[in-house]
Amino acid sequence: MASGRLSLTDTVRVGASGLLARPLRSVLSALGIAIGIAAVVSVLGISASSQAALIAQLDRLGTNLLQVQAGQTFGGTSSSLPLTAEPMIGRIGPVQTVSSVASLTANAFRNSYIPAGQTNGIQVKAARINLLDALAGSMAEGSFLTAATENYPVVVLGATTAQRLGFDHWISGSMVDIGGTQYAVAGIMQPMPLAPDIDRSALIGYPQAQNALGADGSATTVYVRTTPEQVDAVGSVLANTVNPANPNEVQVSQPSDALEARIATNDAFNSLFLGLGAVALLVGGVGIANVMVISVLERRSEIGLRRALGATRGNIRSQFLSEALLLAGAGGIAGVVLGMLITFGYSATRGTDLVVPLSAVAGGIAIALALGAIAGLYPAIRAARLAPTDALRSV
Amino acid sequence: MSTVASEPAAATASADRSVMELRDVRKTYPGPVEVLHGINLSIVVGERLAIVGPSGSGKSTMLHLMGTLDQPTTGQVLIDGVDVSSLSDRELSRFRARTLGFVFQQFYLLDGVSAVDNVANGLLYSGVSLAKRRALAAAGLERVGLGHRLHQPPAKLSGGERQRVAIARALLARPAIVLADEPTGSLDTQSGADVLALLRELNSDGTTVIVITHDPQVAAAMDRQVVIRDGVIVSDTTVGGG
C-alpha cells in the first residue's frame, strides 16, 4: 500500500465531489471563466473567418499590380501621361502585363431620349483589350472587348454602370447611346475590387475612341503587373520611365494596399475585443479565487476529517488545487464551445467560411487552466497549512 | 450482529504490550495555559478504555495527542512503541491512515456523497483502488447493520445511522486503535446504546477502543475508566471482564 499519494483519478474524484456538493456555486464561478474564454475564442474566430475571406480575395487578385496615373504639374494644373508610357513600361524586365484606360469626355445613356444632364455618374473610358488580365477581373455576362470589336461601336459595362443604366441582365442586342451613336453592349463585368472606378465605367476600344470621339490615344491610368518579387523595384522606376522629364507629375500606387488596410483595421478591432476578453478572464479568475477561499473556510471540518483519515498536507493541497483546476477547466471548455457557436453564427450570417484557429481553442483552455492554478494556489496552500486540531475544533 | 473487524493489525501483538503510552505529557496553549500537567498513561492492546472528565478538563486535548493530530509541548506519546514526535507530516498521515480510526461526536460525513462512499473514504489515503474500497465499504456497512442504506446520502440517515456509518469508516482500514470523541453526544439514548454496543463488539477481536466522554454512564460501558480533572488523572480503575 503506497499511502500519502493519491492516484490522479482519486484526486480528480475528490475534487469533483467537492464541486458537485455545491453545484450552483460551481456553475456560477465557472461562468466567469466561460464568458472570458468565449469572448477570446469568438473574437479570434470571427476575425480569422473574415480575414480568411479577405486574404483569399487578395490571393486571387494578387498584390503585384501597380497603378500609374497622371498627377499634377509643379504649377498645379493636371498633366497627362505621354503616348510612350505604355511601350516604355513594357520594356521594364519584370513587367508581365501592361494595360490601360483613357478617360473620355463623352457620356453614356440608355437611349438618345435621356436628358444630357442625367449622366448617372457614369464615365466612358477607352480600354485595352487585355484589361481583364491585368486587373484579374472577369465577366458576369457576355464577353469583353476583342481585337475585332475594339474597332467598332461596342461597349462593355462595369457592374455599377449596368445597374444604373437599368440592365438587370445582359441581353444580346442591347444598345447604349454614347456621344449620339448607338453602341452594342458586348457584356457586363463583375465588380473589380482592385479598380473600383472601372465598376462605374462604360468601356470602349481605343481605336473606336480615337475614330469617333476624338481621343488622342494617350492613357490616363496604366495598370502594370510585375513578377511578385519585383513589385517594389518596378514601382520605384515607373515614374522615371513614364515621364523622364517630369517624374513628379506621375502618381504610382499599389491598389492591393487598400485591401491590406482593411485586414489591418480588423486587427485593431481585435485588440480591443481581446482586451475586453482578458478583463472578463481576470474577473473570472478572481471569482474562482474568492469561491475557493470561502470554500476553505466553510470546509474546515472536512479538512480536519481528511487529515484524521490520513491525508497529508500535500493531499489537501492537491484536492483544493484540483477543484480550482476542474472549475476553470470546465469554464474553459464551455467558453470554447460557446465561442465556436458564436463564430459559427457569425460566419453563417455573413456567408464566410468558418475558421476557428486551433491556437484559440488550445490557448483558451490553457489560459483557463493557468488561471485556475493561479487562483487555486493560495486557497490550497491555506487549506494544507490548517492544523488538524484547529480544523476539527471549528464546528 | 457479527464481529466488526476480524483481523486488526495489532491483534498479533502480545496481550500485555502497550499499544499507546503517554509519558509525562504536558500541553501548553498560547496564553500560556497549561492544559495537561504531566499525564502518564499506558494502554494495553485490546483494552476498552474511557477517558472521563468534565468539559475543560483536557480530555479533548488528550484525544488530539493520542490521535497524532497535535504534538505535546513536553513529554512523549508512543504508539506501538514509536515516538510520534519523531515522525514527519507524511509519516504521521500514514500512521493515522493505517493504525488509528476516529469517531467524532459530529460524525463528519460528507454531504454530497453516499453512505458507501463516505465509508470508502476510510481507505482513500491508503493507496487502495476505488473498486476495492467500495467493496470493503459495502461489507463494512453490512456489518454495522446498514447494508440496506448503501446509496443513501447522510442527510437521509438518522443520527444513530450516521454514527454507525462513521464507525464503519473508522474501521475500514482495520486500525489497531479506535479513538471515539463523545460518540454518543449527539444521539438519543437508544441510538447511543446501540453505538456503545458496537464499540464494545469491536474489541472482541483485539481492537483497542478509547472513548472520550463527559458522561459517566458511557464510561461505565468500558472496562477501564480514567478520570481526568484540570489536566491531571485523578483516578484509574479497571472493572474488568465487561
What would you say this structure looks like, in words?
The complex is a heterodimer of chains A (395) and B (242). Chain A contains 13 helices and eleven strands. Chain A has helices at residues 8-20, 23-61, 85-90, 131-135, 159-164, 196-199, 206-213, 231-242, 256-298, 300-308, 313-350, 358-385, 388-393; strands spanning 65-70, 95-103, 108-109, 123-127, 139-142, 154-157, 175-178, 181-189, 201-205, 221-226, 250-253. In chain A, α2 (23-61) runs antiparallel to α9, α2 (23-61) packs across α11 and α9 (256-298) packs antiparallel against α11 (313-350). Chain B has 242 residues and is an alpha/beta fold. Helix content of chain B is 29%, strand content 27%. Chain B has a six-stranded mixed sheet with strand order 6-7-8-3-9-10, with helices on both faces. A four-stranded antiparallel sheet of chain B has the order 2-1-4-5, covered by helices on one side. The longest helix of chain B has 14 residues, at 130-143. The radius of gyration of chain B is 17 Å and the shape is globular. At the A-B interface, α1, α10, α11 and α13 of A face α2 of B.
Key features of this structure:
heterodimer; A: 395 residues; alpha+beta; 2 domains; eleven-stranded mixed beta sheet; 15% strand; B: 242 residues; alpha/beta; Rossmann fold; six-stranded mixed beta sheet; four-stranded antiparallel beta sheet; 7 helices; 29% helix; disordered N terminus
Concise overview:
The complex is a heterodimer of chains A (395) and B (242). With 395 residues, chain A is an alpha+beta fold.
Oligomer state of the chains in this structure: heterodimer
Question: N- to C-terminal separation of chain A?
Answer: 33 Å
- Count every helix of chain B, treating DSSP H or I runs of 4 or more residues as helices: 7
Element-by-element helix/strand order of chain B: EEEHEEHEHHHEHEHEE
Helix content of chain B: 25-40%
Q: Give the amount of beta strand of chain B, in percent.
A: 25-35%
**In which range does the helix fraction of chain A lie?**
40-55%
CA radius of gyration of chain B is 17 Å
What's the overall average pLDDT of chain A, rounded?
A: 87
Q: What is the structural class of chain B?
A: alpha/beta
Uncertain runs of chain A with pLDDT below 50, 5 residues or more?
none
> Which residue ranges of chain B are poorly predicted, with pLDDT under 50 across at least 5 consecutive positions?
1-15
